[in-house]
Design a protein that fits this description.
Blueprint (H helix, E strand, L loop, with lengths): L10 E3 L7 H13 L12 E7 L4 E5 L12 H12 L5 E8 L9 H14 L5 E4 L5 E4 L17
Parallel strand pairs: 4-5
Antiparallel strand pairs: 1-6, 2-3, 2-4, 5-6
């Protein structure tokens, strides 16, 4: 038997004023998107903002439903809107925020959805994670958030 270990690296920034300008703007847009969340059941409002290669910024927020599985997360709302409105345009970065005091990472389902876009565009998508204020985490790619990932190569 061999025991193997997986680790991830991420950057931690003290606050948005220390981030590069484009990333700070993207995080601000994700924070604004939280106000449009429909979260009457959990009260957990999340916003996402995606920077596309053409300069467009797409925002999304979580949308709940009384039949819980019917709702969708902010990240997937933004991803699927971007894909339907700007097909083939590459994603440069995604920012995620919630009305919390700590950075908010994406759920497993959103990580898998984000990985699909990273895989098909063959380009890393940095993920910027923040709360209302305070520390910010950033990974260099979606793949780093999803070790031992499943993608289209497994379907061959």
């Amino acid at each position: 038997m061999i025991i193997r270990r997986l680790t991830i690296e991420f950057e931690e920034w003290e606050n948005e004023t220390t981030l590069p300008e484009m990333e700070a703007k993207l995080l601000q847009m994700a924070r604004k998107a939280t106000s449009r969340a429909y979260a009457p059941y959990s009260g957990f409002k999340v916003g996402a903002a995606i920077m596309l290669e053409n300069g467009e910024i797409i925002q999304g927020s979580n949308q709940e439903n009384s039949s819980y599985p019917v709702g969708t997360c902010a990240e997937r709302t933004a991803l699927y809107y971007a894909s339907s409105q700007f097909p083939g345009v590459k994603i440069k970065a995604i920012a995620i925020s919630a009305e919390t005091g700590e950075p908010i990472p994406p759920c497993g389902m959103c990580r898998q959805a984000m990985l699909e876009f990273e895989t098909i565009q063959n380009l890393n998508i940095p993920v910027i994670m923040g709360g209302k204020t305070g520390k910010i985490w950033k990974t260099s790619s979606v793949g780093s958030l999803l070790p031992l990932q499943f993608d289209h190569n497994h379907l061959k």
